Amino acid sequence: MEDIKLIVDGRRIDGRKPDELRNVKIEAGVLKRADGSCYIEMGNNKIVAAVYGPRSLHPKHLQNPNRVVVRYRYNMAPFSVDERKRPGPDRRSVEISKVSKEAFEPVIIKELFPRSSIDIFVEVLQADAGTRVAGINAASVALADAGIPMKGLVSAVAVGKVDGEIVLDLVKEEDNYGQADIPVATFIRAGKIEGITLLQMDGRVSKDELKKALELAKKGCMEIYRMQKEALINRCRGDEIVE
Ligand code: UDP
User: Fold this and answer.
1) 3-class secondary structure, 32
2) Which of 18, 115, 186, 231 is a plausible cystine mate for 63, CB 3.0–4.6 Å?
3) CATH top-level class for 10-236?
């Protein structure tokens, strides 16, 4: 598959430049029964996040007397991909749930809710590469929508290497036939990137390329952060109208 051209005259297969995000749409507060929720589209990815809690954690032996226990479940619907995915957890979804949960580690203020849990559910309805980062973006907004005290937002995007070039926000073909896929999540407080909370890599890049990729990821995360904030502001405006 080495001979598939993914970048022609500086344009990618969907017409984007290397440093462009796909179209992103974010809506907060889409589910009535969750404490917080969010729907996100990043290109052809369609994902819903639901947050429950803080609520008392049972069975009791799972409780932590000093802080809240955060649980994260990433799940892909069988119909979300070309080749039907077998329902239920698999190695991939267990790994994604774990690293996504860890992406929120420095952000949620956990000491405020001992013996309780915060449960985050991420449901992928349609997938087109970058679902773990899109899920994290939705979870971040859903947590804020639930009123969970946080030090900032988590904003995430994948970068990678395609046809020898560093690109932002890969689609499935770029993920499959490119040379590297690098999901990145950042912790952003008051418009400033405080740190990277998730960094994975599938493929190979040089040290300089990795540096360039991380810079591009930070630029993408800042763009997403602005859209997350806008979604939360719109949500508050909606509340005002209802009340
Ligand atoms: N994918 C698929 N079937 C699967 C798992 C993944 O078709 O069982 C596709 C899906 O479009 C996904 C992409 O492969 O978004 C890339 O998957 P990866 O494991 O790299 O995670 P992601 O990029 O979605 O975070």
Assistant:
1) coil
2) 115
3) alpha beta
